[in-house]
Amino acid sequence: GRYQVTYEDMDVALGGTPMRVLRTYDSLERLHDAGLGFGWSLGISNFRVSTTGPLGQSGWSIQGCGGSAFIVKYCFATTRKHAVSVTWPDGRTETFDYTPSGWSIWPSVESAYVAGPRTTSKLEPAPGDEAGYTKPFDGNIHSGWVGEGPIYDPQQFLLTARDGTKYLLDKKLGLIQQTDRAGNTVTVSSSGVVSS
Asked: How far apart are CA 27 and CA 29, in angstroms?
Protein backbone atom coordinates (compact mmCIF):
# COMPACT_ATOMS: atom_id res chain seq x y z
CA GLY A 1 0.00 0.00 0.00
CA ARG A 2 0.86 3.64 -0.19
CA TYR A 3 2.88 5.20 2.62
CA GLN A 4 3.13 8.98 3.11
CA VAL A 5 4.71 11.00 5.90
CA THR A 6 5.38 14.72 6.24
CA TYR A 7 7.85 16.42 8.56
CA GLU A 8 7.90 20.12 9.37
CA ASP A 9 11.54 21.15 9.05
CA MET A 10 11.10 24.84 9.72
CA ASP A 11 8.40 27.26 10.89
CA VAL A 12 9.56 30.87 10.61
CA ALA A 13 8.11 34.30 10.04
CA LEU A 14 9.54 35.87 6.90
CA GLY A 15 8.82 39.58 6.93
CA GLY A 16 5.93 38.90 9.29
CA THR A 17 4.40 36.06 7.21
CA PRO A 18 4.54 32.59 8.73
CA MET A 19 6.17 30.06 6.39
CA ARG A 20 6.53 26.36 7.02
CA VAL A 21 9.03 24.19 5.17
CA LEU A 22 7.63 20.68 4.78
CA ARG A 23 9.52 17.51 3.76
CA THR A 24 7.30 14.68 2.49
CA TYR A 25 7.97 11.05 1.64
CA ASP A 26 5.53 9.27 -0.70
CA SER A 27 6.07 5.60 -1.56
CA LEU A 28 4.38 6.17 -4.96
CA GLU A 29 7.28 8.53 -5.80
CA ARG A 30 10.00 6.14 -4.55
CA LEU A 31 11.59 5.90 -8.03
CA HIS A 32 11.79 9.69 -8.43
CA ASP A 33 14.60 11.75 -6.89
CA ALA A 34 13.64 15.42 -6.48
CA GLY A 35 16.97 16.32 -4.86
CA LEU A 36 16.24 15.12 -1.33
CA GLY A 37 16.46 11.42 -2.07
CA PHE A 38 14.15 8.94 -3.75
CA GLY A 39 10.50 9.49 -2.83
CA TRP A 40 11.14 12.74 -0.95
CA SER A 41 9.88 16.22 -1.89
CA LEU A 42 10.07 19.67 -0.36
CA GLY A 43 7.16 22.08 -0.02
CA ILE A 44 6.40 25.45 1.47
CA SER A 45 3.12 25.94 3.30
CA ASN A 46 1.95 29.47 2.66
CA PHE A 47 -0.88 31.32 0.90
CA ARG A 48 -3.46 29.45 -1.17
CA VAL A 49 -5.41 31.20 -3.94
CA SER A 50 -8.45 29.75 -5.70
CA THR A 51 -11.13 31.04 -8.05
CA THR A 52 -14.65 29.89 -8.91
CA GLY A 53 -13.31 28.91 -12.33
CA PRO A 54 -11.98 31.15 -15.10
CA LEU A 55 -13.12 34.63 -14.01
CA GLY A 56 -14.03 35.73 -17.54
CA GLN A 57 -16.03 32.64 -18.42
CA SER A 58 -19.72 32.97 -19.28
CA GLY A 59 -22.64 34.73 -17.72
CA TRP A 60 -21.48 38.30 -18.38
CA SER A 61 -23.61 41.10 -19.81
CA ILE A 62 -22.72 44.75 -20.44
CA GLN A 63 -24.67 47.71 -19.03
CA GLY A 64 -24.03 51.43 -19.33
CA CYS A 65 -23.26 52.91 -15.92
CA GLY A 66 -22.01 56.44 -16.46
CA GLY A 67 -19.65 58.46 -18.61
CA SER A 68 -20.50 61.30 -20.98
CA ALA A 69 -22.53 61.81 -24.14
CA PHE A 70 -19.64 60.54 -26.27
CA ILE A 71 -18.00 57.89 -24.11
CA VAL A 72 -20.11 55.49 -22.08
CA LYS A 73 -18.68 53.67 -19.06
CA TYR A 74 -19.67 50.00 -19.08
CA CYS A 75 -20.32 47.86 -16.04
CA PHE A 76 -20.49 44.11 -16.36
CA ALA A 77 -23.27 42.14 -14.68
CA THR A 78 -23.16 38.39 -14.23
CA THR A 79 -25.59 35.52 -13.76
CA ARG A 80 -23.08 33.47 -11.75
CA LYS A 81 -20.42 33.99 -9.09
CA HIS A 82 -16.96 35.05 -10.28
CA ALA A 83 -14.81 35.22 -7.15
CA VAL A 84 -11.32 34.77 -5.70
CA SER A 85 -10.53 33.25 -2.29
CA VAL A 86 -7.21 33.84 -0.54
CA THR A 87 -6.31 31.60 2.40
CA TRP A 88 -3.58 33.03 4.61
CA PRO A 89 -0.90 30.80 6.17
CA ASP A 90 -2.78 30.99 9.50
CA GLY A 91 -5.90 29.48 7.87
CA ARG A 92 -7.93 32.71 7.66
CA THR A 93 -9.76 33.08 4.32
CA GLU A 94 -10.67 36.32 2.55
CA THR A 95 -12.99 36.50 -0.46
CA PHE A 96 -13.26 38.96 -3.33
CA ASP A 97 -15.87 39.33 -6.09
CA TYR A 98 -14.58 40.03 -9.58
CA THR A 99 -16.20 43.32 -10.72
CA PRO A 100 -14.89 44.40 -14.14
CA SER A 101 -15.79 47.62 -15.96
CA GLY A 102 -14.86 49.16 -19.31
CA TRP A 103 -15.55 51.93 -21.83
CA SER A 104 -17.57 52.02 -25.04
CA ILE A 105 -14.75 53.60 -27.03
CA TRP A 106 -12.33 50.68 -26.60
CA PRO A 107 -12.97 47.02 -25.67
CA SER A 108 -10.48 46.89 -22.79
CA VAL A 109 -11.62 45.82 -19.33
CA GLU A 110 -10.56 47.32 -16.00
CA SER A 111 -10.39 44.32 -13.69
CA ALA A 112 -11.30 45.06 -10.07
CA TYR A 113 -12.19 43.07 -6.97
CA VAL A 114 -14.64 43.94 -4.20
CA ALA A 115 -13.84 42.59 -0.72
CA GLY A 116 -16.37 40.25 0.84
CA PRO A 117 -17.62 40.30 4.44
CA ARG A 118 -14.90 40.19 7.12
CA THR A 119 -12.22 40.77 4.46
CA THR A 120 -9.76 43.48 5.45
CA SER A 121 -7.31 43.24 2.55
CA LYS A 122 -7.45 44.68 -0.96
CA LEU A 123 -7.05 42.53 -4.10
CA GLU A 124 -5.86 43.85 -7.47
CA PRO A 125 -4.78 42.34 -10.78
CA ALA A 126 -1.10 41.40 -10.92
CA PRO A 127 1.11 43.84 -12.83
CA GLY A 128 0.77 43.28 -16.58
CA ASP A 129 -2.56 41.46 -16.24
CA GLU A 130 -4.89 42.59 -19.04
CA ALA A 131 -8.43 41.74 -20.08
CA GLY A 132 -10.85 42.83 -22.77
CA TYR A 133 -14.06 41.88 -24.51
CA THR A 134 -14.93 41.05 -28.07
CA LYS A 135 -17.25 43.00 -30.32
CA PRO A 136 -19.89 41.75 -30.79
CA PHE A 137 -19.90 40.78 -27.12
CA ASP A 138 -20.06 37.00 -26.65
CA GLY A 139 -20.81 36.90 -22.88
CA ASN A 140 -17.17 36.24 -21.97
CA ILE A 141 -14.26 38.41 -20.90
CA HIS A 142 -11.04 37.52 -22.68
CA SER A 143 -7.32 37.93 -21.98
CA GLY A 144 -5.34 40.63 -23.72
CA TRP A 145 -5.75 44.37 -23.81
CA VAL A 146 -8.60 44.29 -26.33
CA GLY A 147 -9.87 40.78 -25.67
CA GLU A 148 -7.87 39.07 -28.41
CA GLY A 149 -6.84 36.12 -26.22
CA PRO A 150 -8.52 33.13 -24.58
CA ILE A 151 -11.04 33.36 -21.72
CA TYR A 152 -9.68 35.58 -18.92
CA ASP A 153 -8.27 33.27 -16.24
CA PRO A 154 -5.68 35.16 -14.15
CA GLN A 155 -3.09 33.06 -12.36
CA GLN A 156 -1.55 35.84 -10.24
CA PHE A 157 -2.98 38.55 -7.99
CA LEU A 158 -1.66 41.42 -5.87
CA LEU A 159 -2.97 41.36 -2.30
CA THR A 160 -2.47 44.38 -0.01
CA ALA A 161 -2.93 43.72 3.71
CA ARG A 162 -4.39 46.25 6.11
CA ASP A 163 -0.86 47.19 7.29
CA GLY A 164 0.20 48.05 3.70
CA THR A 165 2.25 44.92 3.03
CA LYS A 166 1.86 43.74 -0.58
CA TYR A 167 1.84 40.07 -1.55
CA LEU A 168 2.20 38.85 -5.15
CA LEU A 169 0.32 35.55 -5.12
CA ASP A 170 0.09 32.71 -7.65
CA LYS A 171 -2.73 30.16 -7.86
CA LYS A 172 -0.29 27.25 -8.12
CA LEU A 173 2.74 28.47 -6.17
CA GLY A 174 1.25 30.63 -3.41
CA LEU A 175 3.48 33.50 -2.31
CA ILE A 176 5.90 34.75 -4.97
CA GLN A 177 6.92 38.07 -3.45
CA GLN A 178 6.19 40.08 -0.31
CA THR A 179 6.96 43.81 -0.11
CA ASP A 180 6.57 45.80 3.11
CA ARG A 181 5.79 49.53 3.30
CA ALA A 182 9.53 50.35 3.49
CA GLY A 183 10.18 48.51 0.20
CA ASN A 184 11.90 45.47 1.72
CA THR A 185 11.09 42.33 -0.29
CA VAL A 186 11.03 38.60 0.28
CA THR A 187 10.95 36.54 -2.92
CA VAL A 188 10.06 32.83 -2.92
CA SER A 189 11.09 30.61 -5.84
CA SER A 190 12.14 27.04 -6.55
CA SER A 191 15.75 28.11 -5.83
CA GLY A 192 14.89 29.33 -2.34
CA VAL A 193 13.80 32.36 -0.35
CA VAL A 194 15.64 35.65 -0.93
CA SER A 195 15.31 38.79 1.16
CA SER A 196 16.38 42.20 -0.13
From this structure: 5
Output the CA torsion sign for 178, 180, 183, 184.
negative
Q: Indicate the SS3 state at residue 153.
A: coil
What is this structure's pTM? 0.82
Separation CA 110–CA 17 (nearest Å): 30
Is cis: bond before 136, omega within 30 of 0?
yes
Per-residue model confidence as pLDDT tens digits over 46-66:
889 999 999 999 999 988 888
Starting at the earlier edge strand, list the strands of the sheet with 60-67: 60-67, 72-78, 101-103, 106-110, 131-132, 142-143
For the chain, first and last CA: distance in Å? 45
Render 19-80 in DSSP notation, one character per residue: EEEEEEEEGGGTT-B-SSSBTEEEEEE--EEEESS-TTSS-EEEEEEEE-SS-EEEEEEESS
Contacts of residue 150, defined as CB under 8 A and 6 or more positions apart, other chains included, come to: 142, 143
Predicted pLDDT at 91:
85
Phi, psi of 160, deg, nearest 5:
-115, 120
Q: Write the DSSP assignment of 99-137 as a string of letters.
A: --EEETTEEEEE--EEE-TT--SEEEEPTT--EE--SS-
Distance CA 44, CA 174 (A): 9
